[in-house]
Amino acid sequence: PCNFPISTSITPGLENLVVGGYDMRIYGLSKKNRFVSWTYLTDGGISASPLNSGSRSFVGSENGSVYALMQGTGFVRGACWSYKTMGSIESTPTMAGGRIYIASRDTKIHCISDVGDEPYLNWQSPLGLPVLGSPVVSGNALYALLRDDRYSDSPVQEIACLDITDGRERWRKEGISGVVAVSKDEVWATDVEGDLHCLAAADGASRWSLDVSDSLEVFGISGDGSLLIVSQNGLIQRIDKRR
Questions:
Q1: Which of 78, 45, 73 is nearest to 57 (CA)?
Q2: Lower CB count within 10 Å: N or C terminus of the chain?
Q3: pTM of the prediction?
Q4: Domains in the chain: ranges and CATH
């Protein structure tokens, strides 16, 4: 057992398992010897699982920073960096096409590149609401979940679609609380009322909806054009996404 409080899911790397702790530290745990290989102290809570890519680990912190560390050794001067946003980061960054997409409570999506000893900012997209949940990338589109619970017991929730080239907003739809699956042409998302929607990727228009309010979970199934729904009574349903 670990002798420190774990605050995130464990992300396997090439040499180590990388995990966040409630003590504001990032840990690298040896897969071979089962001991702590390295630690790195931040000055904020860590609630989102690390992102591992190649020899790197990217970890977001509630202090607003993303840290790029070496999976095998942790922090190495001249080879690691941090990128600062102006709000808490509470979801795992997303990597696609060599770029890293960061959701922050500063109401922006940040698109950066890892150039070795420092981050390179490609663009920032201000969306007006705190961005929660890991960005979802499909083709040249990025889907961001927005949630503002700062001033109301009924938080505002939306989905925004951005162009990954420059961060330009393509469309936005209110009431969406989660993304289930995406394809080139469609987005399957749940709303705050418990409905599952099939949205057109081009403009966010709803093609159909299905009441799944009694479901425990809705899963996307890749490859066969269907979704799996698990109900509270234990019933498993499979529906065609082309409904």
A1: 73
A2: N
A3: 0.91
A4: 1-83 (2.40.10.480), 85-173 (2.40.10.480)
